C-alpha cells in the first residue's frame, strides 16, 4: 500500500542521456577539438574517457535569435528521458535541427538498443555519449557545430545522494561547459519548483547548478539562460489511475489536503521549454510553471478519479506519522550502514512530496500560492485521467 501511495506522489525522473549516427566531419574554428581519442564501437564513433575537463576557451556566441528555426541547431541532453523525448519532438516540430544526446544504453536498466533510440528520436541526429565525462562529451559534440542553444533535461534516476550530485550537478555542469566551448549562446535548464525549499539532495544539487548558471551569465554578456521550474507532470500524478479503475479505493496521506500542485501536460511543458530559446523576455530568469486550472490536492485528484466513471468515492487514509517513523529508523541505520544512505533519502523524498506543495512560495506570506504559480497550456489533469 505504501509503495502504491508513493508511486502516485513521487516525481517522474527525466533520465540521463547521450549519441548514435556516425560523427560528421568536425567543423572549423568555432569548435575546439580535444585530445581525447576516438574509437569505433558497434559501427558508431565514441570518444574515449578523458581524465580532466576540457580547457578550451569559450567560442564566440552565435547570434541565433535573428535566425529562422531551420538554421538554429539545438542540443538536448537527457534526450531519452521522460521529458527529454517530448522536448526533442517539439523542437523538431518547430523546424529546428536537433542533436539529441543520450546514453549508449537508455531506458529502464538500459533496455533500449541504439537502433531503437535512433528510431525513437528520428529525425534528430542522435549522439551516444557519457555526460559524466566532460572530455568525452565535448569531443562527441565537437562535430555538430554551429550549436546555438542547449536544453538540459538531465536528472538522476531516483534522487539517490551520490547520483544526485553526479547527474543533477556535475553532468549538468559538463553540459554547460561543452555548450559554451562550442559557441552555444543560450542554455535552458529543466529544474523543479521544489528546489525553492531544498531539503533533499537532488534539490540542493539543482539549486547549486542554478547558481553556477546565473554566475556564468553575469560574467559573460554574450550568454543567456532560462531556468524552467515545473510543478509536476501528469504522469507523476497518475500512479493510482488503474487501481481506482479496477474498483479499489484511493490511498492518501492524512485528509489528502497536506499539499497541492498544478500539474502540467508533458507536451505543454516541452512547448514552454522551446519558447524559452527564442523569447528574450524569458532570458536570464527563473521560470516556475504549472498547468492550466486550479491547484489540486490529493483529495481533489481522488475525487476526480471517482467522478469520471460516476462512482462513489472510497478512500484509505494513511497517517503520515507512519512514514516519519520508518524514515527515522532507516536514517539512523544509514549512519551505521552507509549502504542504506539512498534508502533513507528515498524515504525523505516520499515524505517531502506527501506533505509539501509543488507551488510557488509567496515570499510575503511564506505560504504556497496557487495564484502566484503561472499556468501554461490547455490540457488538464482530468483529461489525462479520462
From TrEMBL:
Its main location: plastid. Keywords: Chlorophyll biosynthesis, Chloroplast, NADP, Oxidoreductase, Plastid, Transit peptide. It is an enzyme of class 1 (oxidoreductase). One of its GO terms (biological process) is chlorophyll biosynthetic process. Pfam families: NAD_binding_10. It catalyses: protochlorophyllide a + NADP(+) = 3,8-divinyl protochlorophyllide a + NADPH + H(+). The keyword Transit peptide applies. GO terms for cellular component: chloroplast. GO terms for molecular function: 3,8-divinyl protochlorophyllide a 8-vinyl-reductase (NADPH) activity. It is found in: Plastid, Chloroplast. Its EC number is 1.3.1.75. Transmembrane segments: none annotated. This is Divinyl chlorophyllide a 8-vinyl-reductase, chloroplastic. It comes from Triticum aestivum (Wheat).
Amino acid at each position: 500500500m505504501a509503495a502504491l501511495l508513493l508511486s502516485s506522489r513521487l516525481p517522474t525522473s527525466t533520465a540521463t542521456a547521450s549519441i548514435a549516427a556516425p560523427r560528421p566531419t568536425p567543423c572549423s574554428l568555432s569548435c575546439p577539438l580535444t585530445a581525447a581519442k576516438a574509437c569505433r564501437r558497434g559501427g558508431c564513433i565514441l570518444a574515449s574517457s578523458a581524465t580532466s575537463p576540457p580547457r578550451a576557451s569559450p567560442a564566440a556566441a552565435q547570434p541565433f535569435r535573428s535566425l529562422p528555426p531551420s538554421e538554429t541547431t539545438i542540443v538536448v541532453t537527457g534526450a531519452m528521458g521522460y521529458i527529454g523525448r517530448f522536448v526533442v519532438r517539439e523542437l523538431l516540430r518547430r523546424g529546428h535541427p536537433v542533436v539529441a544526446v543520450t546514453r549508449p544504453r537508455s531506458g529502464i536498466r538500459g533496455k533500449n538498443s541504439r537502433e531503437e533510440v535512433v528510431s525513437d528520436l528520428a529525425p534528430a541526429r542522435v549522439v551516444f555519449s557519457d555526460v559524466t565525462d566532460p572530455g568525452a562529451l565535448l569531443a562527441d559534440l565537437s562535430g555538430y557545430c554551429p550549436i546555438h542553444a542547449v536544453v538540459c533535461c538531465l536528472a538522476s534516476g531516483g534522487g539517490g545522494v551520490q547520483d544526485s550530485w553526479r547527474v543533477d550537478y556535475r553532468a549538468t555542469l559538463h553540459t554547460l561547459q561543452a555548450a559554451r566551448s562550442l559557441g552555444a549562446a543560450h542554455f535552458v535548464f529543466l529544474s523543479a519548483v521544489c528546489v525553492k525549499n531544498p531539503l533533499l539532495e537532488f534539490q540542493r544539487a539543482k539549486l547549486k547548478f542554478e547558481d553556477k548558471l546565473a554566475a556564468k551569465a553575469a560574467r559573460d554578456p554574450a550568454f543567456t539562460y532560462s531556468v524552467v521550474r515545473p510543478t509536476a507532470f501528469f504522469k507523476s500524478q497518475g500512479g493510482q489511475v488503474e487501481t481506482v479503475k479496477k474498483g479499489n479505493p484511493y490511498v492518501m496521506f492524512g485528509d489528502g489536503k497536506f499539499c497541492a500542485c498544478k500539474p502540467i501536460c508533458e507536451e505543454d511543458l516541452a512547448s514552454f521549454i522551446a519558447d524559452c530559446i527564442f523569447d528574450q523576455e524569458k532570458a536570464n530568469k527563473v521560470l516556475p510553471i504549472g498547468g492550466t486550472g486550479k491547484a489540486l490536492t490529493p483529495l481533489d485528484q481522488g475525487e476526480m478519479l471517482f467522478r469520471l466513471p460516476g462512482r462513489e468515492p472510497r478512500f484509505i487514509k494513511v497517517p503520515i506519522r507512519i512514514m516519519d517513523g520508518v524514515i527515522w529508523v532507516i536514517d539512523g541505520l544509514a549512519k551505521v550502514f552507509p549502504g542504506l544512505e539512498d534508502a533513507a533519502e528515498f524515504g525523505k523524498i516520499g515524505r517531502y512530496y506527501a506533505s509539501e506543495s509543488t507551488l510557488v512560495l509567496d515570499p510575503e506570506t511564506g505560504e504556497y500560492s496557487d495564484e502566484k504559480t503561472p499556468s501554461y497550456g490547455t490540457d488538464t489533469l482530468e483529461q489525462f485521467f479520462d
